[in-house]
User: Fold these one by one.
Assistant:
Number 1:
Amino acid sequence: MSSIAAYYAGKNVLITGATGFMGKVLLEKLLRSCPEVKAIYILVRPKAGQSTQERTADMIKCKLFDQVGEDCPDFEEKIIPVSAELTQPHLAISPDDAKRLLSCINIVFHCAATVRFDEPLKYALQLNVMATQQLLVLARQMQYLEAFIHISTAYANCNRRYIEEIIYPPPVEPKKLIDSVEWMDESIIQEITPKLIGDRPNTYTYTKALAEYVVQQESSNMNIGIIRPSIVGASWQEPFPGWIDNFNGPSGLFIAAGKGILRTMRATNDAVADLIPVDVVVNLTLAAGWYTAVHRPKTTLVYNCTTGGINPFHWGEIEYHVVSSFKRNPLEQAFRRPNANITSNYLINQYWITVSHKAPALVYDFYLKLTGRKPRMMRIFNRLHKSMLLLEYFSSQSWEWTSDNVNMLMGQLSPEDRRVRTFHRALLS
Ligand SMILES: CCCCCCCC/C=C/CCCCCCCC(=O)SCCNC(=O)CCNC(=O)[C@H](O)C(C)(C)COP(=O)(O)OP(=O)(O)OC[C@H]1O[C@@H](n2cnc3c(N)ncnc32)[C@H](O)[C@@H]1OP(=O)(O)O
Ligand SMILES: NC(=O)C1=CN([C@@H]2O[C@H](COP(=O)(O)OP(=O)(O)OC[C@H]3O[C@@H](n4cnc5c(N)ncnc54)[C@H](OP(=O)(O)O)[C@@H]3O)[C@@H](O)[C@H]2O)C=CC1
């Protein structure tokens, strides 16, 4: 058994955000690669009329868990759903559940967050910063806690071009901001948000930067690790290639291009597209949990989980591969044949948006109306244009991240672990 799997044997793990894209993959990999893990507690909020238990039961039916179902048929018994709502006081965890968590948890992986770029600042603060503070309060009381791993983003400091594996001073003292927004009317907060976030593009990156600072300041004597993934895409190898369950980041735009809807997008051809497969991120995350608990670094280590510095890929190449892949494997019910082009020129992009997005949408909606059907194309294009506007910031420029801690972590792995947990070699190939 690899030393990482040996470490997690007999341990009780807590995951927040386990129903999310990355959280699911983390849960699955832990169950499959560390079969001796004792229990995995997952904080799951009731949602859309489903209880915590019902949501969990539904979640593990998804294809992602097929492999672990074959390898470890009783894996479900290791998953212990705990009802929580991270924006509520004490995370809305019942006193009994809290007592149980305090008495047994050895490692925490904090994945839960709002990743929306257009999230109102107050909510983004509540979930990405205040919930993290609440979780740290809980973690500090855990009698047997060995490591607390916080999932941040490589773009938390995207207002810098060169980003080291350190926690930068926050744009504002989080407590001051939290106290101010407590009493402010939503409309006032909305008014001042652009000024507050300053040279960051959205409330997401802003609050993720604040969260890192809070983790550093409020972790007292806990062993902390911070993971900063860049743009997380579909799985590369595990449990099978190509698994993803959302339209976030470029994924939605790739689909829109494959459906022949997206024909033009503002991006810079030679800007680095720092995409990283979700299974590679999860392998690094589990390795960091092991390293933090076993080697107990004196300071909080930050891991820039990025690819641009190791095996750079560019948006111009993405354009080529996305279009050629969908030409070879066309999507069903495509609106048109895939033929997307990126351009860094605003006017050219606006021209193509008019000619190859809006005009065809109007014509097609007119045809739908004529044939007694509900027009829908313009609505789809408006939603797509909103996504594109929010994502352009990230596809029009490049960043450089150091990766000394990631390299160090790789160096600590045994040959067996390197085989089981590719998070570096994969990027070199
Ligand atoms: C040849 C092609 C070339 C392409 C070039 C690509 C360049 C693009 C580069 C991109 C870089 C990305 C950099 C990310 C860096 C940071 C990473 C991280 O750290 S965190 C993760 C990132 N977070 C996000 O990606 C959230 C971004 N998304 C949002 O904030 C929202 O989705 C938003 C504001 C864009 C839209 O919000 P709404 O409210 O209008 O829509 P909603 O509620 O999200 O979704 C409504 C429905 O539309 C689908 N949808 C959402 N986005 C879509 C999309 N882009 N394409 C298609 N469908 C989409 C959803 O699945 C949903 O479907 P239902 O109603 O549930 O059935
Ligand atoms: N995807 C990416 O490209 C990247 C993601 N990250 C980071 O990785 C982490 C996970 O991201 P990702 O998996 O993409 O995000 P998702 O949006 O897929 O998942 C978010 C998770 O947080 C949970 N959550 C949200 N609000 C609450 C709440 N109020 N109470 C309890 N749980 C809640 C969601 O639960 P529910 O199912 O109930 O909504 C879900 O499990 C985040 O911290 C993000 O910043 C970093 C870099 C890139």
Number 2:
Amino acid sequence: MEQMLKQHPKWQGRAVLIQIANPARGKGKDLEEIQAEIEASCNRINETFRQPGYEPIIFINRPVSLGERAAYYTIAECVVVTAVRDGMNLTPYEYIVCRQGIPGNESTSDSNSPKKSMLVVSEFIGCSPSLSGAIRVNPWNIETTAEALNEAISMADAEKQLRHEKHYKYVSTHDVAYWSRSFFQDLERTCKDHFKRRCWGIGLSFGFRVVALDPNFRKLSIDAIVSAYSKAKNRAILLDYDGTVMPQTSINKHPSEDVISIINRLCDDVKNTVFVVSGRGKDSLGQWFSPCKKLGIAAEHGYFIRRSTDEEWETCGQNTDFGWMHMAEPVMKLYTESTDGSYIEVKESALVWHHQDADLGFGSSQAKEMLDHLESVLANEPVTAKSGQFIVEVKPQGVSKGLVAEKIFTSMAENGRHADFVLCIGDDRSDEDMFEKIGNAINSGILSFNTSVFACTVGQKPSKAKYYVDDTTEVINMLQFLADASNPPPTEDASGIPH
Ligand SMILES: O=P(O)(O)OC[C@H]1O[C@H](O[C@H]2O[C@H](CO)[C@@H](O)[C@H](O)[C@H]2O)[C@H](O)[C@@H](O)[C@@H]1O
């Protein structure tokens, strides 16, 4: 408020903030300090901007009954909720209902005139995403919050009415009965197959959770995969990078010499089509895997694909408009400013917010909120926002590792080499797109009925993959067995004829 009166002096002598301090539920030194700070701020603002008959802040520091609160809401031009951390927060909903009033109540002169209301809400409160007409602010940013207050009270009446109508429609249709019904529906949907599943306790301490796994989900047996591999004539091998052949905890992200050598031995077998399918950029992957001449690489989730080092990168031509980056980046910046250790990675086709180095709990709760926020801001843009291992990524719609898998199988079939063995390994949310595509590939005719399919996730967790291995060491060990079972490259005699 102080900043708004400074930035927009026209409101001095006119705008009043009724600051209702709800009685605190707890006690303690911190609380006393905060109360003293609020009181001091109110006094300072009033002393600076006070005029005869005008006090900019009315500070109500006592329990306020529901009736009195409703009376304030009814007359307020705008409600401001700038909590830096909160749960759902029902204040904006109560305000909207109070501004709408009771139908047929003639107690006010303008009871039949169109209703209007304005909300300035913190992006950190739970109800924020449901209020599409509210002006959303990061309360840590005082200047933009002050601008939002000015914008709210300066807005044309017609606009205030439209926003109010939208909010009232939402609040009146999403009542407590709606919420309870939808919770029950979600619960029923989620638990539908639980009786068929096996439940496991995973992790320790705060990381402990119970996961329900499909009874057919099992550890990948090296004997079984080596046996199927040996019998196959046309094999597709799709490997994710981070968390699959590269441990998530490694500081040095270059593939090890072992990995390069195993991949080269797999690529050397003429029966094999081997791809690294990763979210990483083409320059790093291209450089890291430069010793693997015959390796295919799908970078940035398949936005770029190259079949070997002899070929040029192909771009997935669907999306060339990246205007959405100008909308997504400011949102990511807001969260970066309030989350120590986080940063933004700008790729050619995507934006990624990383929080691996942030506080574990705070980073992941910020990631969840940011994902919601991005989904609402980018609702009409041709993009998808998804979370992964310590990341939230926005990328063009239609670009997915699932599509990469489909392209690989289709092009093998077009070259008369229908895959009769598929190994696809990944650890992350983005790899689930491959597992899903592979799961449906036989029914959709992309793979034939006699294909041996090994979709495998890294770590025991709910997945669309049928198999799991425990960690990257097991992945590399298994690939080593496959490399050992591979045919070496044909040798050439002195005349250059391969044998
Ligand atoms: O598809 P992947 O091979 O699993 O790649 C996914 C993302 O990899 C990179 O992020 C990962 O490494 C970061 C450190 O280098 C780490 O902070 C993050 O938590 C990891 O997810 C890459 O930076 C992203 O662009 C990829 O999408």
